[in-house]
Design brief:
327 residues, alpha+beta, Molybdopterin biosynthesis moea protein, domain 2, Hypothetical protein af1432, 5-stranded antiparallel β-sheet, 3-stranded antiparallel β-sheet, 17% strand
Length: 327
């Protein structure tokens, strides 16, 4: 199985992982042949990378959160958002249930990948999908920081509700409106509410709504901020891969993010997903087959030599590095 950019090189290959609509229907099933017509259709629904079956069995897809569970969570979160829009109130029980189920089932292995195989075909569900993805990454950072289960639950709730203010306003004041909505429910703690209010604050004070700086920004908000920005980058251009998004975050630097949170984030996001074809500094083309824990830029890769499969562990071969992704 190989991860490929949708282009002419993917023609006539078989899809290895199904593509779903956000409402849960199969859009294109495993085994479907990729052709010129469905390449254009798939791109139109916001997907530019797919896994194809190339007969190589070294790669199996591990998702951070399996597609059926993602689809279920999106549906349940849509119900929460709809109720909030109607009643101007955030019910705590369904939100707790969604986040507890994430914590119970999330795959925090270094080999797990936040794979985009959900079609952008429903505007009402896009915010739910975005909120879920931000929550998944925030929870992974929580585990990286060795938070307690209770603290991870609170972080997850703050992350999944970070844009709840958009039920009231689409402007910058969605942060304040979201804060008001969650604060009206006594279940939600002050730190959780502050996370929602402050997730657009920047380390140098250039953010909003209060232009807070450094230590004045609560840690939950800093985590949600970088996860939100990363997901926004991926969503802004469907052809962007994780390593590109990390490069964009790096360019933002300490102006936007605290150094500690940035290190935790980039140490948790494995930027060359399994199945991706890369060019190495020694000139070889190889496929990423496995990640090395805590070494997100130095995976194990495989290449063919005289019809034999050979492997290079980039952790043990420090003079070799990934030069570029092969499209």
């Amino acid at each position: 199985m190989r991860l490929v950019i949708l282009n002419e090189k993917a023609m006539d290959k078989e899809l290895a992982v199904p593509i779903y609509t956000q409402s849960g229907m199969i859009y294109l099933n495993k085994g479907a042949k990729i052709n010129e017509r469905n390449i254009e259709q798939i791109k139109k629904i916001g997907i530019n990378t797919v896994y194809i079956d190339d007969g190589i069995n070294d790669v199996t897809l591990q998702e951070i959160y399996d597609a059926p569970l993602r689809l279920k969570a999106i549906k349940e979160l849509k119900n929460v958002f709809d109720e909030c829009k109607r009643k101007k109130y955030v019910p705590e029980q369904p939100v707790i249930k969604i986040v507890e189920e994430i914590i119970e089932n999330i795959n925090i292995s270094e080999n797990a990948y936040l794979y985009n195989n959900l079609a952008k075909n429903d505007k009402d569900l896009e915010l739910c999908t975005h909120s879920l993805n931000v929550a998944l990454l925030s929870i992974i950072i929580g585990y990286k920081k060795k938070y307690s289960q209770d603290k991870i639950l609170k972080l997850g709730i703050g992350a999944i509700l970070h844009d709840i203010g958009k039920m009231v306003s689409n402007g910058e004041d969605h942060t304040i409106e979201g804060y008001k909505l969650v604060k009206s429910n006594n279940y939600f703690s002050a730190t959780l509410c502050t996370c929602i209010r402050s997730h657009h604050e920047n380390e140098d004070g250039s953010g909003y709504p209060e232009k807070l700086k450094g230590d004045k920004i609560y840690e939950f908000a800093k985590i949600v901020s970088i996860c939100n920005e990363y997901i926004n980058i991926l969503e802004s251009d469907d052809s962007i891969l994780p390593h590109h998004a990390i490069e964009v975050l790096a360019a933002m630097g300490q102006q936007r993010f605290s150094n500690d949170i940035y290190k935790d984030f980039v140490g948790s996001i494995y930027c060359y997903p399994n199945g991706l074809t890369v060019k190495l500094s020694n000139g070889l083309e190889a496929m990423v087959i496995k990640q090395n824990i805590n070494m997100p830029t130095r995976p194990i890769v495989a290449f063919k030599e005289n019809d034999n499969i050979k492997y290079i562990d980039l952790v043990n071969n420090l003079t070799i590095f990934i030069e570029e992704v092969v499209y």
